[in-house]
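re: ur question from yesterday

yeah so i grabbed the chain u mentioned. its 400 aa long if i counted rite. heres the sequnce exactly as i have it in my notes:
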Amino acid sequence: MALDTGTTAWLLVSTALVILMTPGVGLFYGGMVRKKNFISMIALSLVALSLVSLQWVLIGYTLVFGHDIGGLIGGLEHLGLAGVGLDPGDGTYPPILFAAFHLAFAAVTLAVITSAVAERIKLSSFLVLGLLWTTLVYDPLAHWAWGGGWAQSLGLLDFAGGTVVEINSGFSALALALVIGKRVGFGQHSMEPHNIPMALLGGGLLWFGWFGFNAGSALAADGIAANAFLVTNTAAAAGAMAWLLVSWLYGRPASLGMITGGVAGLVAITPAAGFVTVPASILIGGVAGILCYGAMVWRLRRQYDESLDAFAVHGVGGLWGTVMTGILAATAVNQFPGLLEGGIHQCLVNMSAALVAVVYAFGVTYLIALAVDRLMGLRVTEEEEYVGLDISQHGERISY
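ran it thru and got these structure tokens back, copy pasting raw so excuse formatting
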């Protein structure tokens, strides 16, 4: 087929938007930690981008999109992006651009799970953990959903990563938090965000970048992309308002809570963006804001130090969105009927895939974290944690 310059241009822009989300995560998380760990959180996101960029082109892409092996993993024919060229072939855009687009997804997913280890992980341990996690957790899940694996063959609807990115990162973060343990003084001393405007800026960048994340996943400049764009914004707005209102019932309507609710709405609409109508996106995003707020409250009551709530927002929001995709998918948007249109099988497939993603992400991440902890130790010393990771890990500090 001939190269479609419009689609190619849109995918180039979408790839750049998704890459922007990774430093967006760093700013969002960095504003929420204490001042002495601000640089560390931004650095971890950029380390995630750099590490995954190399892993993906060397082995990650082929593990996801190589020929299917037993429904579980891709073959090795594309090692080092072998055979992934510039000629569009049967498509309308260069395969190498498709590889770059999905590289950005893998990078931001690793950045999200830094929530679980904020203010206490050794940089060296994160490098090893990140490489193992991307290869053994992210890549198999991405193959199952997008690369011809068992979930895709059963008919899973996951437009932009409800299982691959959101459930995966959220439940992996919970597993990591349980292994690495609580920050020193957690539950005893105040650990309030040091720079809320910075967190708001990071959240805003995530909202902006998510248009590439979801609308770009149409892999075309068409009506499905336009629908994904609008429902993404609508769900984010519904999530922001829902979190704001429910938090108002228990105190003041914090701006940080509002943007967190917006992210919850973005997370929840991710698997559904190319399959549901605009009214459905209001339901998905609004309920996500309430559910994720409740998950955060539950986490705090259980005294789990999953520091920046990737579990509550990405894990719970992604689970909700994936299940609701199987229920609310509409043939008026795409060809797939959800449960409300008689698609019982679709609903069961989405629910099953979501459950498997929860178990696999949590279980394998827990084992990887245990192994890294036993071999080299996950966390810094108590003295290094007291000083802060900016100084102890990077030899830098902010001056304001």
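noticed a couple things. The mean pLDDT is 96. also The chain has one domain: 5-394.
anyway ttyl
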